[in-house]
Amino acid sequence: MSTPTTAAKPTGKANTPRRVILASLIGTSIEFYDFYAYATAAVLVFPALFFPADDPTAQLLSSFAVFGVAFIARPIGSILFGHFGDRIGRKATLVASLLTMGVATVLIGLLPTALTPGWEIAAPALLALLRFSQGLGLGGEWSGAALLATENAPAGKRAIWGTFPQLGAPIGFILANVTFIIISYTMSPEAFQEWGWRVPFLASAVLLFVGLWVRLSLLETPAFTRVVERNEVVKLPLARVFRRNGVQLLQGTFIMLATYVLFYLMTAFTLTYGTSPSDAPVPGLGYARIDFLWMLIAGVVFFGVFTLVAGPLAERFGRRKMLGAVTLGIVVFGLLWVPLFSSGFVGTMAMLVLGFSLMGLTFGPMAAFLPELFPSNVRYTGSAIAYNFSSILGAALAPFIAVALWRAAGGSTLLVGLYLAAAGAITFVALLLTKETRDQEYVENSSVVIAAEEP
């Protein structure tokens, strides 16, 4: 895909490691906070507030359907922001993606509900539109943050630096859910249902301003600067990446599949199953909402820890070999889904800890691995499309499919576990068909080699 070339002359200015790490981490933390705030509300309050119906299952499935709208928007966002990320640069595009998602999140906190007279149709329609906007922003966010980290990384440390934007996922999850818990503790259930659920969405405005302040202070990445200096900016990155890197797009899409399915089963589905009454016609585990949220937060701590562990492992053993071993672990985990879930509190906590640990190990190297599949003049577009097209297959459908399988099995989660194992098997095959990218140098800043892409 590329061949080494001579070193570029230093420009005299560069992003400091602290600035790069902070900007990539804080941006994704804010983006994922916004995203998970909606995911939590989609389970806890949105079914009743925006989709009133006699059947609770219909309410929940309607809420999850709008939840999935963002995943349809994400590939569109990846094309839109990927185009500008490869045309005008990573920095400006990252600022735009953050604004798109941040403003949509704040507006969700201001929406009337379907229980408001005259808003029965408009409220859920506007919720879907704002959810679409959230997905649009996140579609451009991840790749930009990943490139910000990895295109500034020293030689041999791309996977390590790439774990910092990935760490935004567990941090955002914890921030969103702790906010919901604090609100639940400090107000009555009636007040929470009436207006308290709005607070996490409105509070994101503060985080948005912090993220913008950090990102506006950045310099452009060395890789994109080099593309401009060599006059290699592509007019239509989308056309170029599909024409020359179609195989890599497919590989990246299916490499991410198991990661997406695992995460959205571990969060959106387990929250539904864990808090459903044990004596219901379709029984769940019967935990109180607050108790299970604390259990999830404890599990997500392991997600964060193993995200950081994954970087050094991917550098030592290579992306392909390391992810292959983790993916086999996900397949086995899916087969153990029912025995763990049926073993009381200890088994449930073990299941959450193990699942989120696997999530950290599979998610951590992706910020390095997916961009490495593409040359730098279409890297934003290529990695964004692969990452976000996979979100349709692995994330948008996962909670919906899992709830449908659980209901169809009369309360058993056996089919849900098999669904996860099947996703892992598909990802494992994709990894077998992909070349190792660890030793491929693709940027230079002083001592790091830049790769010259094909014209």
TrEMBL record:
<feature type="transmembrane region" description="Helical">
    <location>
        <begin position="322"/>
        <end position="342"/>
    </location>
</feature>
<dbReference type="GO" id="GO:0005886">
    <property type="term" value="C:plasma membrane"/>
</dbReference>
<keyword id="KW-1003">Cell membrane</keyword>
<feature type="transmembrane region" description="Helical">
    <location>
        <begin position="94"/>
        <end position="115"/>
    </location>
</feature>
<keyword id="KW-0769">Symport</keyword>
<dbReference type="Pfam" id="PF07690">
    <property type="entry name" value="MFS_1"/>
</dbReference>
<dbReference type="InterPro" id="IPR005829">
    <property type="entry name" value="Sugar_transporter_CS"/>
</dbReference>
<comment type="function">
    <text>May be a proton symporter involved in the uptake of osmolytes such as proline and glycine betaine.</text>
</comment>
<dbReference type="GO" id="GO:0015293">
    <property type="term" value="F:symporter activity"/>
</dbReference>
<dbReference type="InterPro" id="IPR011701">
    <property type="entry name" value="MFS"/>
</dbReference>
<feature type="transmembrane region" description="Helical">
    <location>
        <begin position="195"/>
        <end position="216"/>
    </location>
</feature>
<keyword id="KW-1133">Transmembrane helix</keyword>
<protein>
    <recommendedName>
        <fullName>Putative proline/betaine transporter</fullName>
    </recommendedName>
</protein>
<feature type="transmembrane region" description="Helical">
    <location>
        <begin position="121"/>
        <end position="148"/>
    </location>
</feature>
<feature type="transmembrane region" description="Helical">
    <location>
        <begin position="412"/>
        <end position="433"/>
    </location>
</feature>
<dbReference type="InterPro" id="IPR020846">
    <property type="entry name" value="MFS_dom"/>
</dbReference>
<dbReference type="InterPro" id="IPR036259">
    <property type="entry name" value="MFS_trans_sf"/>
</dbReference>
<feature type="transmembrane region" description="Helical">
    <location>
        <begin position="160"/>
        <end position="183"/>
    </location>
</feature>
<comment type="similarity">
    <text>Belongs to the major facilitator superfamily. Metabolite:H+ Symporter (MHS) family (TC 2.A.1.6) family.</text>
</comment>
<feature type="transmembrane region" description="Helical">
    <location>
        <begin position="59"/>
        <end position="82"/>
    </location>
</feature>
<feature type="domain" description="Major facilitator superfamily (MFS) profile">
    <location>
        <begin position="20"/>
        <end position="438"/>
    </location>
</feature>
<feature type="transmembrane region" description="Helical">
    <location>
        <begin position="385"/>
        <end position="406"/>
    </location>
</feature>
<feature type="transmembrane region" description="Helical">
    <location>
        <begin position="348"/>
        <end position="373"/>
    </location>
</feature>
<keyword id="KW-0812">Transmembrane</keyword>
<feature type="transmembrane region" description="Helical">
    <location>
        <begin position="292"/>
        <end position="310"/>
    </location>
</feature>
<keyword id="KW-0472">Membrane</keyword>
<feature type="transmembrane region" description="Helical">
    <location>
        <begin position="249"/>
        <end position="272"/>
    </location>
</feature>
<keyword id="KW-0813">Transport</keyword>
